[in-house]
Automatic annotation (TrEMBL):
Gene Ontology cellular component terms for the protein in this record: membrane
Domain of life: Eukaryota
Domain MAM stretches: 258-410, 421-533
Domain Fibronectin type-III: 156-249
Organism of this sequence: Desmophyllum pertusum
Protein name: Uncharacterized protein
InterPro entries: ConA-like_dom_sf, FN3_dom, FN3_sf, Ig-like_fold, MAM_dom, MAM_domain-containing
Gene3D superfamilies (alphabetical): 2.60.120.200, Immunoglobulins
Membrane-crossing residue ranges in chain numbering: none
C-alpha cells in the first residue's frame, strides 16, 4: 500500500458449496512511511520504492548518539539507484548543517564510497531520503564511532600487508584485531589513497573477514593502504600505513605493444578520424545525460574515458571514429579493451583492425564496464566506431585499451558432453567465418498427425558458452515456447516444456557478434502428457500454487483449474508473488474460452499483488502457465472457485451481517 493513503476494505467469505458472502465496507488510512529512530551503534538503511501508483516515498531516520562527546557517524553507500532527478538523499549533522546531499539522476551500479558526519552539539544525525520512481533504491550502512577515522589510534602489533599485486588489483590482508584487543571487533574499514592525488577507495568488512581484494586500480600507480578496526564500543583503531604500487604490464599473453587509459589525454598514435560525422569526447565522471553512460572510468573510478555524446544535434546513424595507428605486419596479437553501453536507445560499437571487423555489439548492455578480448592479425590501424542510436540515451564509452603480442587466452566455446550420452554426438551451430552477426540456423522436427494437439512434454539439453553467444529459440508451430540468450557457462542445462503439440517443432540458433558463439542441443525427446514435476489438474475448489525453481533445469508448467461442477462458475485468483530473474520467464492465465487475461514476462523483482475474477466460460476450466529458468525464481498464486463473481454478492445473508475489524 501507499503511505498516507485512504483505502476501502471489504472482506468476502465463501462457504463449502462456493457461495460467496460480503462484509460491510470499512475505511482505513495507512500511516506515513519510514520515520524511524536508529539508536544502535551500527545498522543498515535499505529503502526501495515499490509503489506501482508512483506515490513519492519520503523517509526520515534519526541516528542517536550513545553519549560520546566527539562522536562521528560513518556512512558507507552501497547503492544509490536513482531514476528521477528530483530524488535525493540528504544527511545533516547534529547542528542541522547538511553534510551530504546527492540528487538524481544517479544510475544503477554507482561506486561505493564513505562519508563521515560529526554529531556536533546535538545528540542525533538525520538521514532524509525521497524516492519517486519504481525500483529506485538507497542502501547505506552506518557506524557510530567515538572519533573520526583519521584520529584513530595506531595499535602496535596490528599489521596489514599488500599481496598478489597485479596491474589493476591488490590483495589486502590484516591480522585479527579481536585477538589482540581481547574484546570484539565489529567492522573493518579498508582505505586506499593514491599518493599523488585524492582518489579514494573505501570498503567495510565484517568482523570475521581478514582480507579483501580491491580491483579496478590504475596501472603503475602507488597507493597508501590503511585498515581501520571498530570495536563494540565504537572505538576506531588503525594499522601503520603500507605503500603498494600496481604493476605496469597487464596479465596478457605477451609483451604490451601499446596501451592507453586516457587519463592524460589521447596517447601516442591515437587520433580523431576525419571520415565520420562527429568526434569522441574525453570525460571523467558521469556523462551530461541522465540514464546513460558510465558514472566513472574503469581504470580507477576517478580517471578519464572516451565516449560518444548522443544528445542534440546528433541523430540516429551519426558515427564517430577513434583511430589508433600502430606498426603492424599482421602479427598475431591480443586486443583488450573495456566498453560501457548503458541506455535504452543504445546504438552500436564496432572495432576494425585494418579492414577486418573484429568486434561489433549493439543495444543496452547494462550499467557495467564489460571486458572484450579479440585475437587479431595486427594491421597498421585499429579503429573504434560508435554509431548513434534512436535517441539521447545512447552514450557509449571505451577505456583501458591495450594490444599485446600473441593470441588471447580467452574462453573457448567447445561444449562438454551431456551426462546421459557421453561419448555420443550433439547438434550445434558453428559461428566462425563465413558466418556473420544474426545469421540463423533452424532444425525442424515434423510431428506425426496423430500427435498434433496432444498435451506433451518437450525435453532437451542445451549448451551456450562463449563471450559472443546470441540466442537459442524453440518454436511449437509458430509459437515461441523457449528462448535463451547470452553466455550460460560451461555446463549442459536441461529444459522441459509442457505444450499442446503442433505440426512441427523448430530449434533456431542465432549467431552473435563474433566466433565465440557456438550453441549446442542434445537428447531431445517428446512424450505424451505434462512434464514431470508439474501438476496437470487442480480440481479442488480452493488451493495454492507455489512454483519454485529448485534444480538445474528449465521448468515450463501448465495447471488446469476445474469448475467443480458449478454451471456458471467464476474463479478468484490472487497473485501474491512473482520473482523472475531471466527475460525468458513468464506467467500466463487463460479463461475458460482460451482468452489470455493476464500475462507477465521476466525480469521482475518487485510485483504489486493482483486480484481478479476469471470466468470458466464454455470449456469449464482455467489454465495457468508458468515458465521458470533460474534459481530463486518463483510464483505464488491462491485460487478459489465460486458460483458467482464477488461483485454480484449482497451485503448480508439470513438477516446477519459480516463485520470486519481493522487492526493497527
Amino acid at each position: 500500500m501507499s503511505p498516507s493513503s485512504k483505502y476501502r476494505v471489504v472482506v468476502y467469505g465463501v462457504d463449502g458449496i462456493g457461495q460467496p458472502y460480503k462484509s460491510l465496507e470499512s475505511a482505513v488510512a495507512t500511516k506515513k512511511a519510514c520515520n524511524s529512530a536508529a539508536n544502535q551503534s551500527a545498522g543498515l538503511i535499505d529503502v526501495t520504492h515499490t509503489d506501482y501508483n508512483h506515490h513519492d516515498l519520503l523517509c526520515y531516520w534519526t541516528i542517536g548518539n550513545t553519549g560520546v562527546t566527539h562522536a562521528v557517524a560513518l556512512f558507507l553507500f552501497q547503492k544509490l539507484d536513482f531514476d528521477y532527478c528530483g530524488e535525493f538523499v540528504k544527511i545533516s549533522n547534529g547542528s542541522g548543517t547538511v553534510q551530504f546531499y546527492q540528487t538524481g539522476c544517479w544510475p544503477s551500479g554507482s561506486k561505493k564510497y564513505i562519508v563521515e558526519v560529526p554529531f556536533g552539539k546535538s545528540s542525533n544525525i538525520t538521514v532524509n531520503i525521497l524516492l519517486s520512481k519504481l525500483k529506485s533504491r538507497v542502501r547505506v550502512q552506518f557506524l557510530v564511532l567515538q572519533t573520526g577515522l583519521n584520529s584513530a589510534t595506531v595499535l602496535p602489533g596490528w599489521t596489514v600487508s599488500a599481496d598478489n599485486i597485479t596491474s589493476t588489483s591488490i590483495l589486502i590482508q590484516w591480522t585479527n584485531l579481536t585477538s589482540l584487543l581481547n574484546h570484539r571487533v565489529l567492522y573493518y574499514v579498508i582505505r586506499l589513497n593514491r599518493t599523488n592525488g585524492n582518489a579514494l577507495i573505501q570498503r567495510i568488512a565484517q568482523e570475521n573477514t581478514l582480507n579483501t581484494e580491491v580491483g579496478g586500480l590504475g596501472r603503475s600507480t602507488n597507493y597508501r593502504v590503511d585498515v581501520f578496526g571498530v570495536d563494540e564500543l565504537g572505538r576506531p583503531y588503525r594499522t601503520l600505513t603500507v605503500n603498494a604500487t600496481t604493476k605496469n604490464i597487464p596479465a596478457t599473453s605477451g609483451p604490451v605493444v601499446t596501451s592507453c587509459n586516457f587519463d592524460y589525454g589521447l596517447c601516442s598514435g591515437w587520433q580523431q578520424s576525419y571520415s565520420d560525422v562527429f568526434d569522441w569526447t574525453r570525460r571523467a565522471g558521469s556523462t551530461s545525460s541522465s540514464n546513460t553512460g558510465p558514472s566513472s572510468d574503469h581504470t580507477s573510478g576517478s580517471g578519464y574515458y572516451m565516449y560518444i555524446e548522443t544528445s542534440v544535434p546528433r541523430v540516429a546513424g551519426d558515427n564517430a571514429k577513434l583511430k589508433l595507428s600502430v606498426s603492424g605486419n599482421r602479427e598475431l596479437s591480443c586486443l583488450t579493451f573495456y566498453y560501457h553501453m548503458y541506455g535504452n536507445s543504445m546504438g552500436t560499437l564496432t572495432v576494425v583492425s585494418g579492414n577486418a571487423r573484429v568486434f561489433r555489439t549493439s543495444g543496452n548492455r547494462g550499467n557495467y564496464w564489460l571486458k572484450a578480448e579479440r585475437t587479431i592479425y595486427l594491421a597498421n590501424s585499429v579503429t573504434f566506431e560508435g554509431i548513434v542510436g534512436s535517441s539521447y540515451t545512447g552514450d557509449l564509452a571505451i577505456d583501458d585499451v591495450s594490444i599485446s603480442s600473441g593470441s588471447c587466452h580467452g574462453p573457448t566455446t567447445y561444449p562438454t558432453l551431456p551426462p546421459s550420452t557421453s561419448p555420443g554426438k550433439y547438434m550445434y551451430i558453428e559461428t566462425s567465418r563465413p558466418r556473420v552477426f544474426r545469421d540463423n540456423a533452424k532444425l525442424e522436427y515434423s510431428v506425426s498427425s496423430s500427435d498434433v494437439g496432444k498435451l506433451s512434454c518437450l525435453t532437451f539439453y542445451y549448451h551456450m558458452r562463449g563471450d559472443d553467444i546470441n540466442t537459442l529459440n524453440v518454436f511449437n508451430g509458430n509459437t515461441r515456447v523457449f528462448t535463451k540468450s547470452g553466455n550460460q557457462g560451461k555446463e549442459w542445462f536441461k529444459a522441459k516444456i509442457t505444450m499442446n503439440l503442433q505440426s512441427k517443432v523448430t530449434f533456431e540458433g542465432i549467431r552473435g557478434t563474433e566466433f565465440r558463439g557456438d550453441i549446442a542441443i542434445d537428447d531431445v525427446s517428446i512424450t505424451t502428457g505434462i512434464c514431470q514435476g508439474c501438476t496437470e489438474n487442480v480440481n479442488q475448489s480452493f488451493g495454492t500454487l507455489d512454483v519454485r525453481y529448485t534444480s538445474k533445469f528449465d521448468s515450463h508448467c501448465n495447471w488446469v483449474i476445474g469448475h467443480s461442477g458449478i454451471d456458471q462458475a467464476v474463479a478468484i485468483v490472487s497473485i501474491h508473488q512473482i520473482f523472475f530473474t531471466d527475460i525468458s520467464e513468464y506467467i500466463k492465465i487463460f479463461d475458460g474460452n482460451g482468452t489470455e487475461v493476464f500475462a507477465l514476462h521476466g525480469r521482475v523483482s518487485s510485483f504489486h499483488k493482483r486480484f481478479t475474477n476469471i470466468s470458466f466460460g464454455e470449456y469449464k476450466n482455467i489454465t495457468i502457465q508458468v515458465s521458470l529458468s533460474h534459481i530463486w525464481s518463483n510464483v505464488k498464486i491462491d485460487f478459489g472457485t465460486l458460483n458467482q463473481g464477488l461483485d454480484s454478492v449482497g451485503d448480508s445473508f439470513n438477516g446477519r451481517t459480516l463485520r470486519v475489524s481493522l487492526l493497527n
